[in-house]
Amino acid sequence: MDETVVQIGKAGRMLGVLSAPDGESAPNAPVVLMFNAGFLHHVGPFRLWVEVARELAARNIPSLRFDLNGLGDSAPASNPDIHQVQLATENLIDAMNLVESRLGLREFIVFGLCSGADYAHPAAKADARIRGVVFIDGYGYRTKSYWLYQQLNRFTSPRRWKSLIKRSLARDLSEREKAQELAPELMDDTGREFPTVDQVQSEILAFLQEGRRLHYIYTAGVPEYYNHEHQFWEMFPRLRPQAGLSCRYYPTTDHTFSLVSEREELKSALLGFVKTQSSTK
After folding, report:
1. What burial class does residue 165 get, using C-beta atoms within 10 Å of its C-beta: 0-12 exposed, 13-18 middle, 19+ buried?
2. According to the model, what pLDDT value does residue 92 have?
3. Mean of pLDDT over the chain
4. 254 three-state secondary structure
5. 152 Cβ partners below 8 Å, 6+ apart?
6. Which of 15, 49, 66, 249 would disulfide-bridge 73, Cβ 3.0–4.6 Å?
7. Does the pLDDT of residue 134 top 80, yes or no?
């Protein structure tokens, strides 16, 4: 495997690591792009992207992991007023241009986690070279059953029962402590800006009609908008399970896959997606 530090973009303001196999890439293999998960730099949470890149290279599949402008090792954008979504889209296009110029490959898979998933969607709209995307804790919308599961989870939460017992044994809690104990279990809104659900559903349908493959992963780490196995299909009722579209919910996994066993399971899913993408060409 050859790992090379590269400068990306016309001014070389982004830095990344291009991981290429020692020999020729596998037949029909796409290039995998991995970038920032939130503010984490290009190694990914707990070095996830590093491990995935090296396992891909061992399978003769190249990849590029890099930092968007203003994050990690990459310099801020030359235009400070550019919207972050537009900037990320331009960054991904620059990354694909660099790979194409170096390796001569034109088909890409994007792995996006958290805000990375948010950026992967508009980038796929902007550039047809993106043939597959894995969205991890990406766009999510509360449904009717979401609220039912929210109440069920609060009722069955060990933390909530512990709070009830504590209050019954300590009647002299201050008003502030009482307010904290009675606070909802769910986190506040993340502040991430999602397009409307109708817009996203229509764009997913367009991706599928173009023959792209999409895999959506949700974890228990985003309970503020996603909390059960079937929610994806309720969010997007016009979609259905099909060859190019799949979804999985990890009910006990946190947002950054902090346990080794969880990361191993995720890596297996990511590598399987790439293998499936390669075999369908």
Report:
1. exposed
2. 98
3. 87
4. coil
5. none
6. 15
7. yes
Contact of 99 with 105, CB cutoff 8 Å: yes
Rounded to an integer, what distance in angstroms lies between the CA atom of residue 110 and that of residue 34? 6
How far from the centroid of its chain's Cα atoms is residue 171's Cα? Answer: 44
List the chain domain ranges: 2-143+195-279, 144-182
Least confident of 20-29, 56-65, 212-221: 20-29
Q: Given pLDDT bands bounded at 50, 70 and 90, which one contains residue 276?
A: confident
Residue-wise pLDDT for 72-86, tens only, equals 999 999 998 999 999
Report residue 16 CA to chain centroid gap: 18
Q: Which of 140-154, 166-180, 213-227 has the lowest mean pLDDT?
A: 166-180
- The answer as to CATH 3.40.50.300 being correct for domain 2-143+195-279 is no
Residue 90 near residue 68, CB atoms below 8 Å: no
SS (H, E, C) the chain: CEEEEEEECCCCCEEEEEEECCCCCCCCCCEEEECCECCECCCCHHHHHHHHHHHHHHCCCCEEEECCCCCCCCCCCCCCCCCHHHHHHHHHHHHHHHHHHHHCCCCEEEEEECHHHHHHHHHHHHCCCEEEEEEECCCCCCCHHHHHHHHHHHHHCHHHHHHHHHHHHCCCCCHHHHHHHHCCCCCCCCCCCCCCHHHHHHHHHHHHHCCCEEEEEEECCCCCCCCCCCHHHHHCCCCCCECCEEEEEECCCCCCCCCHHHHHHHHHHHHHHHHHHHHCC
Confidence category of residue 243, pLDDT binned at 50, 70, 90: confident
CA distance 238 to 242: 12
